[in-house]
Amino acid sequence: MAEPLFEREFLKRLEMLTLSARRLFRGDTRGERRSTVHGASVEFADFRPYVQGDDFRRIDWNAYAKFEQLMLRLFVEEQELPVHILLDCSNSMNYGTPNKFDYARRLAAALAYLALSNTDRVTFTALSTDEEHDTFLGPTSAALRGKPAILRVFKLLEALRPAGGTALDESLRRFAVRQKRAA
């Protein structure tokens, strides 16, 4: 039986951490990250003049009383952050004490746990090569959401074993191309 990726005490310490994005972004679905999109939320962003066709329920009547012009309240939309975790699963990772591959799996599990705890979307990709292909992106998980999905990540990571080699530059290039097509 494989040893667990980490102990309960470590999970408790992870609960106090969060992933942060350096800038605001436009996501796909609602989440807990600030976005560049204005929408429904509790955090006020700005006013803008009312335009015919706008939802009249968003008119700020206090602003109308002050400026004598119909104004809409805009709020910061909160959306999920897409987190992509790529793990080198080549034989070169099976080295050292502590083992590089085990350490990388633990790090990937910790990052996935942080993201899933913050209602972000996580996808996981194993990078490796085999004799049939020069380079390929190994198994990619479906987009995982919500804290319970961490169990699927743990199972996926525990099942991985280092094998083959990795042309890291080529693997990352193919990953970037795949992401551009998906966007």
CATH topology of the largest domain: Rossmann fold
Largest sheet: 3 strands, mixed
Give the oligomeric state of the chains in this entry, treating copies of one chain as homo and distinct chains as hetero: single chain
Q: Report the radius of gyration as a whole number of Å.
A: 22 Å
Continuous helix count: 5
Q: Give the distance, in angstroms, between the N- and C-terminal Cα atoms.
A: 40 Å
How many beta strands in the DSSP annotation?
Answer: 5
Name the shape in a single word. Answer: elongated
Low-confidence stretches: 29-39, 131-137
Q: Just give the CATH class of the largest domain.
A: Alpha Beta
Secondary-structure arrangement, i.e. CATH architecture of the largest domain: 3-Layer(aba) Sandwich
Order of helices and strands: HEHEEHEEHH
Query: Structural class, please?
Result: alpha+beta
Total domain modules = 2
Q: Approximately how much helix is present in the residues?
A: 25-40%
